[in-house]
Amino acid sequence: MRIRLFTPPGPLTYDMLNQRQLTLLKFRRHKLAVAAAFLLAGLYIMALFSPFFAPYGKYERNLDYIYCPPQKLGFDRETGLHAKGLRRMVDPVTLNSYYEDAPENNAPLGFFVRGVPYRLWGIFPTDRHLFGVDTGRIPDFKPGDEKRFVYYMAGADKFGCDIWSRIVQGSTISLSVGLVGVFLSFVLGVVIGGISGYCGGVTDTAIQRVIEIINSFPQLPMWLALAAAVPADWSPLETYFAITVTLSLLSWTGLARVVRGKILSLREEDYAVAARLLGAGHGRILFRHLLPAFASHIIVTLTLTVPGMILGETSLSFLGLGLRPPVVSWGVMLQECMNVKAVIDYPWLLSPVLMLVFAVLCFNFVGDGLRDAADPYASK
């Protein structure tokens, strides 16, 4: 026989909501955090379908447009929306290259255009791109003209590669490093911190001394030392996982201390003592009763850790000790910026920095919103 509980008429009030509903409600009131969460979702969707969002392949070169500046957009009745054409010229005296307007090279643009063939996730063959040069609208288009009619939204690098396409496809690695690294940090921090707080005594003391030793090392030199130990002949995939593990091994200590402190305050609560008296095992008490009690705080800590992971990979790759070409990531792309003259002459090479700052700010705003919503009973 089912018993239906009495439901009061009318809309639910604040006092009728459970903790999960209160947390979600409080987070939704943080407008900046909600907007940042949607932007982050857009970034990861872009990374997941990066070949579709990139108008060119990440290794596609066009030597006729070396260091091409970002092209401007134009609109007219004949061509419609188009990228204003440029022509590369060489100064006969200084031998420096420069670009001048070339209206005959105006490239009509469109959405869902055909371009460089690729395999989405290495499985589905296609040649559709979200936007790019619509060759079907170019009169008398001949094979080979695709090198002439181009659109470099963020400019081109020293090899004539489209910087925007490389930024989009490099986001797959730069953004996934944070998630994979945080997952490893979560496992280490929760398990080690939970054991330390639950067991106490000699076990707690030994674990805390190990954490203090790890935290006493300067972070950047430790990253450099561990990254330099990666063999240079490793494949890009092996190097990727090595860098991810390296970042995880140095970032789990903060979460472990948070978990330890919470476990110390909760292990003597009535529900924990009752579970112990009923014969529940230590693992069940720790992972089924104590850890879920402050899961929101763990989520906040992890959210604020992801930007550090992304910045760590970018720093190592920028210094040449992390990921290396032909792998494309934001840090690898910034290696060109080590030449100050190149940055002064071609400032668009710093475009990956803008994406990096944008992603880190979004993570920080989401973390702030989750931190405010983690304790919904603090204030109404």
Structural summary, described in words:
The structure is a single chain. With 380 residues, the chain is of the alpha+beta class. 52% of the residues lie in helices and 11% in strands. The chain contains 14 helices and six strands. The protein has helices at 19-28, 31-48, 50-53, 163-199, 201-216, 219-228, 236-249, 253-266, 270-277, 282-290, 295-318, 330-333, 340-345, 351-373, and strands at 73-76, 80-83, 86-90, 97-101, 107-120, 124-133. The chain has a four-stranded antiparallel beta sheet with strand order 1-2-5-6. Strands 3-4 form a two-stranded antiparallel sheet. A hairpin with a 3-residue loop joins strand 1 and strand 2.
What is the topological layout?
Layout lengths: L18 H10 L2 H18 L1 H4 L19 E4 L3 E4 L2 E5 L6 E5 L5 E14 L3 E10 L29 H37 L1 H16 L2 H10 L7 H14 L3 H14 L3 H8 L4 H9 L4 H24 L11 H4 L6 H6 L5 H23 L7
Antiparallel strand pairs: 1-2, 2-5, 3-4, 5-6
Structural class: alpha+beta
Give the strand line-up of the largest sheet: 1-2-5-6
Q: Secondary-structure element sequence?
A: HHHEEEEEEHHHHHHHHHHH
Provide the low-confidence segments as ranges: 1-10
Q: How confident is the prediction overall: mean pLDDT?
A: 82
Q: Give the helix proportion (percent range).
A: 40-55%
What is the terminal separation in angstroms?
39 Å
Q: Please summarize the sheet with the most strands.
A: 4 strands, antiparallel
- What proportion of the residues form beta strands (DSSP E)? 5-15%
Compute the gyration radius: what is it?
27 Å
Query: Assembly state here?
Result: single chain
C-alpha geometry: elongated
Count of beta strands: 6
Treating each run of at least 4 consecutive H or I residues as one helix, how many helices? 14
